[in-house]
Write a structure and sequence with these properties.
3-stranded mixed beta sheet, alpha/beta, globular, 5-stranded parallel beta sheet
């Protein structure tokens, strides 16, 4: 057998077609696994990327302008408008976001109580559009773990994210701010379902704060990225189309 014949025989035995025939099942399983992992994490990872990008833009603004003012002061309004516009464009293009009922918000202080979705991107959209439309900063009560996320300190300060002790909320309300809180918190985000079941338990501190500050509170209905349905693989395509096609936030009277 000549060298050329040996080479042809070896190539025939090791062709891609022969390899796929032997290992087709494994290739399919690996491909489906990778696709499922990417499909599950693509939404939260994209959102997380843009959040950190927003913080980087704020750091650049702070360094170039040598801004040392209080993060809640009006000095940061131009930066807030920029990042709010960025998120509003993202909301329009990716989720067709709509906001109704803003006229029902009080001109002065008030408490906004809302449902905590699996990924509360809807609330971020609300904050952005509220600032663009009304030039109002709504202070937000967040869980302790949010403040443990590395590299987001400036973003949290400029956007008015706070731990939300009773004293902090009272001070914010007395200063004329809107304060938002989701009583269900992380528990509601993790264990609620597609019926938007509230999981507030005995958390009624927001009502006591409203009484102490002598302000009213509004309940809001937020329905944006229904991740609970989106991540159910058996209905993925149907729910993906439905979710991206009907996004809105309503603040009833």
């Amino acid at each position: 057998m000549t060298d050329l014949s040996c080479l042809a025989y070896v190539l025939e035995e090791w062709t891609v077609v022969e390899y796929l025939k032997k290992h087709l099942f494994h290739v399919v399983i690996v491909s489906l696994t990778i696709s499922a992992i990417l499909g599950f994490f693509i939404v939260p990872l994209t959102i997380l990327f843009f959040i950190y990008l927003t913080n980087i833009l704020l750091l650049i603004y702070q360094k170039n302008g040598e801004v040392k003012a209080d993060p809640l002061s009006d000095v940061w309004d131009s930066a807030r408008k920029t990042i709010a516009s960025f998120w509003d464009i993202y909301a329009r293009i990716w989720h067709g976001y709509e906001l109704h009922g803003v006229e029902n918000l009080p001109e002065g202080p008030g408490i906004l109580v809302y449902y905590h979705g699996a990924i509360p991107i809807d609330y971020l959209y609300f904050l952005s559009r509220l600032f663009l439309w009304k030039k109002r900063l709504c202070l937000s009560v967040a869980d302790h773990f949010v403040f443990r996320l590395p590299g987001l300190k400036l973003l949290l300060e400029v956007t008015g994210i706070m731990l939300g002790t009773r004293e902090e909320c009272l001070i914010a309300l007395k200063n004329g701010h809107l304060v938002s809180i989701s009583p269900g918190g992380v528990r509601e985000a993790l264990f609620s379902d597609e019926s938007y079941r509230l999981m507030w338990g005995n958390r009624k501190g927001f009502a006591q704060v409203a009484l102490d500050a002598k302000v009213g509170f509004l309940d809001s209905c937020m329905k944006v990225l229904d991740c609970r349905l989106l991540l159910r693989t058996e209905d993925f395509q149907l729910n993906f189309a439905h979710t991206l096609g009907s996004q809105s936030l309503m603040i009833p009277i």
